[in-house]
Amino acid sequence: MDVDIKNIAKLFEKFKDQEACKEYLEFKRWGNNIICPHCNQSNPYRTNRGFTCSKKECRKKFTVTSGTIMDKTKIELKKWLAAIFLFTTSKKGHSSVYVANLLGITQKTAWFMLQRIRVMLLSGESPSDLLTGIVEVDETYVGGKYKNKHYSKRKKEAQGRSTKDKIPVVGLMSRGGNVVAFVTEDTSANTLDQIIDNNVSSDAIVVTDGYKGYNHVHKKFNHIRVKQGNCYVVKDGDNEYHTQTIESFWATLKRGYVGIYHYMSRKHLNKYVNEYAYRYNNKDLTVSEIFGKSMSLYSRSRITFKELTKKLTA
Ligand SMILES: [Zn+2]
Asked: By CB distance 3.0 to 4.6 Å, which of 64, 222, 239, 254 could disulfide with 25?
């Protein structure tokens, strides 16, 4: 019974009370085979509040939200579903203030919910396959007091390779395919080599700009450098090599940073970067499909409350 949710009005119509939400969450998590999260035993007893494990040695109680991002929540489930819908189907993301106003909750609660949804996106997605074909690799800097800086200074810094209060992010994007991006300590050749080795198929064509950090890439990969300056595209027959697709991903990420989130601390930046990668990688799905997929992640990300808190503060 996967549902077709095209908009927020439809969502509230479909998930009007806790029971309707629980039924859907049960379906997304277990299908027809409800299993105990403590011991994996099937066929638990249904109780007023949830389930009791039918295995003699276990007999533990659990609910459909146990060990998920909604574990022990006091927020109505329909508000959780709405927050997940708003957050994952939006092109640019939403601030906690916006979500708070829309759902009638405090900004602090909304912030906490959005952080949990980000953790869900991080821990739920299976590791992506190696990137193949033409793979654009680029690094950028995000963070610091970006929004307070004068435009000309921002532009100048954005072109530079090292700035004090900014955090390096390395992105890899297969042309016509997925993007993966990582917050890193630095943009040294060692760091870049390692990330490229771990994420790119050996038969791919790696495209970068002229930064010296990419000096070793040619040793393992077919490497094409596009010049900086006025020429950004290298043509070879019908093929055009450039790093403009990953650069446009950075532009979206930074617009989100400046326009919506205003500030990202180093400890949270990885989650934000992943959030934008998730949006980019699912951009061809319909709103309804993205919601369905995101709700499947909820069911897969069975993390304990302790782990979750650890991840939220890590
Ligand atoms: Zn059990």
From this structure: 64
What is the whole-number distance in angstroms between the Cα of residue 50 and the centre of ligand 1? 13
**Res 126: pLDDT:** 58
Domains and CATH numbers, the chain: 8-32+65-124+284-313 (no CATH), 134-277 (3.30.420.10)
306: DSSP letter: H
Given pLDDT bands bounded at 50, 70 and 90, which one contains residue 91?
Answer: confident
Instruction: Calculate how far, in angstroms, residue 303's C-alpha sits from the geometric centre of ligand 1.
Output: 16
Residue 5 Cα to ligand 1 middle (Å): 33
Name, in order, each residue with C-beta under 8 angstroms of 72's C-beta and a sequence gap of 6 or more: 65, 305
Measure 70 CA to ligand 1 centroid, in angstroms. 20
What's the 41 CA to ligand 1 centre distance in angstroms?
Answer: 5
pLDDT digits (tens, 9 = 90+) for 108-128: 999 889 988 988 887 666 566
